[in-house]
Amino acid sequence: MSDAQNEKIKDLERKAEVQKLRIKRQRKVGYAHGLLDGVLTMLGPDDTIVDCGANIGEITTKMAATGAKVFAFEPDPWSFERLERNTKEFANVTRFQAAVGAQAGTLNLFRPAEFEDRPRRASTASSLVPGMRDVDESTDGIPVEVVGFADWIETKLGEGHKIRLIKVDIEGAELDLMESLMDRGLPDRVGLMLVETHQRQLPAEAERFAALRDRVKDFRAGCINLDWI
To answer: In terms of CB atoms within 10 Å, which end of the chain has fewer, N or C?
Structure first.
């Protein structure tokens, strides 16, 4: 077999592997969003939902359609403007142009280098974590407000909110956030937490991610899902 034929076979094998990974991801996405849709069918006006990392509001609008009270957090000004526009018809949505974190304060939000050319796609990867793969660390980032989320949740619970669902998609910052919530036992005081984890983008934090998964068993069965996507 010639070198050209061998190279063609290798190229086909690489393409087949890429396709297998794409199909695997599509299945995971289908399962995750099917789970979300199923949970939303059980919620109504007496319930509260929190969307952390709302982006432009695609999932926030699904949440709002249940009639539940929805609190949506989005720190990126580009995305927040579109979140406001896309959810303006829902009186039950309260929007915060802020990130959520372990502590209140101000941090810099880093966008991917491709943001100027492809803001819609790139906006989903903006992160408070400068070490995240894909973000552009050559800039100083955008200063954004950070809400101390554990304190915020306890305040809402004290006000009588029945927090049935919390979605967390905050591009690497979920490590600090979830550790702080677990330290205070809050997962047992709310409904379901759907959390997208980003260990592939943060390989240096592999041990912390493993410890986070190990801690899930300390809480009510099924209240934390770390495989949402």
So the answer is: N
Q: So what CATH class is 44-225?
A: alpha beta
Handedness of CA 174, 177, 181, 183 (dihedral sign): positive
Cα–Cα dist 28/32, whole Å: 6
Among 52, 154, 64, which residue's Cα sits nearest to residue 96?
52
* Model confidence, pTM: 0.88
Residue written as token pair 């554990």? 150
For 88, phi and psi rounded to 5 degrees? Answer: -60, -25
Cβ-based neighbours of 143, under 8 Å, separated by 6 or more:
106, 107, 108, 109
- Rounded distance between C-alpha atoms, residue 126 and residue 79, angstroms: 10
Domain ranges (residues) in the chain: 1-41, 44-225
pLDDT less than 70: residues of the chain:
1, 9-13, 15-32
Q: What is the pLDDT of residue 137?
A: 78
Contacts for 19 with CB less than 8 Å, ≥ 6 apart? none
Question: What confidence score (pLDDT) does residue 102 get?
Answer: 97
